[in-house]
Structure formats: structure tokens, C-alpha cells
């Protein structure tokens, strides 16, 4: 039986701490939900910020909620060139020693010394899905995406949690290179 998983294409976005939300939007401000995301409890917020690097600025970078313990900007390699930063490829949350940027909101700005990454391609597995398929947390997988520009993605990180829903995440560079669209099915081959 084929092990197929839906693909979600992840555009540039930012996760903020409660402290940074207060600086950027004002004391006591709370993010508001625009739409839910594939992972339970996660959402795209109505709010956006500007992100400023040494060579350029992105306006209207979408905030994803809820707030997190550390501020983290996830961008593609092409985005990194555009604003002049050199982020490492990392799993979400692994920001130590990564690149920094300045973030501007309507009420203020904050500069982070680290927190900019190119997210490692990964698949979120609910614990039951992972158990059914014999997959363990942090396992590196090979995943085939078909179509006119089909590819096999190497080193796709399995992320297993009872709080996750089955979904593969790749960034816009990867999706564009392979001609992948949101919701397209991919096959785990090993």
C-alpha cells in the first residue's frame, strides 16, 4: 500500500513571541485569526509585519499564531538572497546561531540577532500515522512528487506528535522547482 501524504507549500512567514507582539503592535495586543492552518491550533493571523535585512525589505510578512517561545522567520533561499541574509537550513525551533533581521510593526520595531531559517523540508505525522507506517520521530525520508517536473526529495524530516496532522511542508523554492501545488499528494518511498 502506498504511503501518500498531502503537500503544503509554505511561503515566507514569521512566528512571534508575546513580548515581540506587544512591541510591534502595542501592549496587550492579541493576534487575530484569519484562517486555520493544517496543523491543529495553528493559524494564519490577520496581522503582518515588515522584515528588514541588510539588502532589502519584505512588506506584509504573514504572522502565524499562536505566539511562540522564540521569534522565528522562515524564508526560502531566494528570499534570503533578496534581503541579504544567510540563514541555515534547520528544523523549526532550531534557531541558535542563525541569521537576524529587524521586524517592524505599526507600534514599534525589534531587531533579532538570531531566528531566521530556511525550514528543513518535513512531514508532520500524527503518532498513529507514524506507528502504522513504521516511522519514528526525526527519521529522514525519501519522498516522490509526481507531475511534469516530478522529483524525489531527500532528507525529509519526520516530525511525530499526537498534536500533529499528516502534512508535508516544503518551501516555495522547492515547490516551484518541482511544479508542486498545495494539496498535491506525495509518496513516501523510504
Major beta-sheet overview? 8 strands, mixed
Number of self-contained structural domains: 2
Percentage of residues in helical conformation: 10-25%
Mean pLDDT: 97
Distance between the termini: 13 Å
Counted by DSSP, the helix tally is 4
- Relative strand content: over 45%
Categorize the overall geometry. Answer: globular
Cofactor: Zn(2+)
Function: Involved in 1,2-propanediol (1,2-PD) degradation by catalyzing the conversion of propanoyl-CoA to propanoyl-phosphate.
GO biological process, one term: 1,2-propanediol catabolic process
Protein name: Phosphate propanoyltransferase
Question: What this model shows, in words?
Answer:
The chain is of the alpha+beta class and 190 residues long. The protein folds into two domains: 73 residues, Barwin-like endoglucanases; 107 residues, no CATH class. It contains four helices and 14 strands. Strands 2, 3, 4, 5, 6, 7, 8 and 9 form an eight-stranded mixed beta sheet that branches. It has a six-stranded mixed beta barrel with strand order 1-13-10-12-11-14. The two termini are 13 Å apart. Belongs to the PduL family.
Amino acid at each position: 500500500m502506498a504511503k501518500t501524504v498531502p503537500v503544503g507549500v509554505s511561503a515566507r512567514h514569521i512566528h512571534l513571541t508575546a513580548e515581540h507582539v506587544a512591541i510591534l503592535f502595542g501592549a496587550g495586543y492579541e493576534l487575530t485569526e484569519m484562517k486555520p492552518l493544517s496543523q491543529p491550533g495553528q493559524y494564519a493571523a490577520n496581522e503582518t509585519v515588515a522584515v528588514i535585512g541588510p539588502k532589502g525589505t519584505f512588506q506584509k510578512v504573514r504572522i502565524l499564531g499562536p505566539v511562540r517561545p522564540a521569534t522565528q522567520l522562515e524564508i526560502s533561499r531566494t528570499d534570503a538572497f533578496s534581503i541579504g541574509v544567510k540563514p541555515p537550513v534547520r528544523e523549526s525551533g532550531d534557531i541558535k546561531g542563525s541569521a537576524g533581521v529587524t521586524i517592524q510593526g505599526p507600534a514599534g520595531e525589534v531587531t533579532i540577532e538570531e531566528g531566521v531559517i530556511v525550514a528543513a523540508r518535513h512531514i508532520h505525522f500524527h503518532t498513529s500515522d507514524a506507528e502504522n507506517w513504521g516511522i519514528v520521530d526525526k527519521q529522514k525520508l525519501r519522498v516522490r512528487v509526481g507531475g511534469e517536473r516530478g522529483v524525489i526529495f531527500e532528507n525529509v524530516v519526520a516530525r511525530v506528535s499526537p498534536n500533529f496532522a499528516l502534512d508535508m511542508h516544503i518551501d516555495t523554492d522547492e515547490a516551484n522547482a518541482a511544479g508542486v501545488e498545495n494539496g498535491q499528494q506525495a509518496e513516501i518511498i523510504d
